[in-house]
UniProtKB/TrEMBL annotation:
<dbReference type="InterPro" id="IPR036691">
    <property type="entry name" value="Endo/exonu/phosph_ase_sf"/>
</dbReference>
<dbReference type="Pfam" id="PF03372">
    <property type="entry name" value="Exo_endo_phos"/>
</dbReference>
<dbReference type="GO" id="GO:0003824">
    <property type="term" value="F:catalytic activity"/>
</dbReference>
<dbReference type="InterPro" id="IPR005135">
    <property type="entry name" value="Endo/exonuclease/phosphatase"/>
</dbReference>
<protein>
    <recommendedName>
        <fullName>Endonuclease/exonuclease/phosphatase domain-containing protein</fullName>
    </recommendedName>
</protein>
<feature type="domain" description="Endonuclease/exonuclease/phosphatase">
    <location>
        <begin position="12"/>
        <end position="115"/>
    </location>
</feature>
Length: 401
């Protein structure tokens, strides 16, 4: 099929209730996947579930049925596109299951990142819910994006100089961090540049040179562009690795496509596109959703008054000498060890500075006030390194009492 000048393939799926015939479908899908090089969408009644949570009632779930479906999904690299609306799509007396779904390969996620799947109301004479799948290439605006330090910035030869100059503009940590955020955003736009656009430009230039007559000048240019392209590809991998939050896979193996797919799935999972209101009705209007979320958290964190229960008995007793050790001034080496022990790409603070920034810039002096990112400055920052230190101290004290 062709949509918006993009070629893609749709497979309408029906899984036979009989296990033997359903295995024939799994074999067929594996064969189709071998020659699949375009965005591929699979939707329909798979007559299988991916986890026990997709079944409610009836006899105990069959682990082999789940495992066979999981195997085919993993073998051919499919991604569940999720859904909005009620969880179960198939109903029978005393039994509910999610048998109907839409799945796609990584090329589909890259091409149609905003694909939505909606579970529609069930018709009177059917025990299945219809599912509506809408392919969308445009990324929906999510409001103003907060400042974040990108790991790829630290691979640029001019980053440290930019950081030092920006940091020197403040007289305290808060002012320096704000100045750095402003300068880094401008530096990213005017100097570092858009990674994907730079990659496309280099690839086009390399293709032109490889088609031109070969000579020594041409060969030197090709070699130079290849070196630049290697750095750009590494920066691209870092970009998607950071956004994917997949810390159990290490960067360096050119997993860009995988990280990209994981990033898109994470965004889809985190986006709230439908909520059920107090009347039991599903709501998808963005303005109403925003108000429902605001109202929910306002009520959740509103103090209803009354006395709090006594807390003394909820914590282990610590003798006075241990309290002195726990409350002692943070030692510079202790702070450094805590910072270095943090996950480099863990969530940053409200200033957008992640642990990687401090780990790499720890020994960098800031020119204006002759201080650096170390002890007195970083200890005053509202970040989790102080919590890491105090938690470690507390654990050590409890274990040695």
């Amino acid at each position: 099929m062709t949509s918006q000048r993009i070629e893609w393939q749709l497979s309408a799926v029906y899984g036979n209730p009989a296990p033997v015939q359903r295995r024939e479908l799994w074999s067929f899908l594996r064969n189709v996947a071998e020659d699949q090089d375009v965005p591929w969408l699979l939707a329909g009644d798979f007559n299988s579930i991916l986890s026990p949570s997709e079944k409610l009632g009836g006899a105990n779930f069959e682990s082999s049925r789940i495992r066979e479906f999981q195997d085919v999904v993993n073998d051919i690299g499919l991604h569940d596109l999720g859904y909005t609306g009620p969880h179960f799509t198939w109903f029978r007396t005393g039994l509910r299951e999610r048998l109907d779904r839409a799945m796609a390969n990584s090329q589909w996620l890259s091409t149609f990142p905003e694909t939505t799947v909606r579970h529609l109301p069930r018709l009177k004479k059917s025990n299945h819910r219809p599912i509506l799948t809408t392919p969308t290439t445009q990324v929906q605006p999510g409001g103003e994006k907060p400042f974040r330090v990108l790991a790829a910035w630290l691979t640029h030869e001019g980053f440290m100089a930019m950081m030092e100059n920006a940091w020197a503009k403040g007289s305290c940590f808060t002012e320096s961090a704000a100045a750095f955020a402003r300068d880094a955003a401008e530096w990213n736009r005017t100097v570092f540049g858009h990674i994907l656009r730079k990659k496309d430009k280099l690839l086009r230039r390399l293709e032109q040179l490889e088609l031109a007559p070969s000579d020594s000048k041409n060969a030197n240019q090709i070699n130079q562009i290849q070196e630049e392209l290697e750095l750009i590809l590494f920066q691209e991998e870092l970009l998607w690795y950071q956004k994917s939050r997949m810390e159990w896979i290490k960067s360096g193996d050119m997993n860009t496509a995988y990280f990209h797919a994981r990033t898109i799935k994470r965004r889809k999972r985190n986006r709230v596109s439908m909520l059920k209101n107090s009347a039991g009705e599903w709501v998808d209007d963005p303005v109403t959703l925003l108000e429902m979320a605001r109202s929910y958290f306002h009520e959740l964190y509103t103090d209803e008054g009354g006395e709090l229960p006594p807390l003394e008995s909820q914590f282990p007793y610590i003798i006075d000498t241990r309290w002195v050790a726990l409350a002692s001034v943070l030692d510079p080496d202790e702070i450094r060890r805590a910072v270095q022990a943090m996950g480099a790409l863990k969530s940053p603070g409200k200033d957008g500075l992640n642990p990687l920034f401090f780990q790499r810039c720890w020994d960098t002096d800031t020119p204006k006030h002759n201080t650096n990112l170390r002890p007195s400055v970083i200890a005053d920052r509202e970040c989790s390194n102080r919590q890491v230190i105090l938690s470690t101290r507390g654990l050590d004290l409890l274990l040695t009492q």
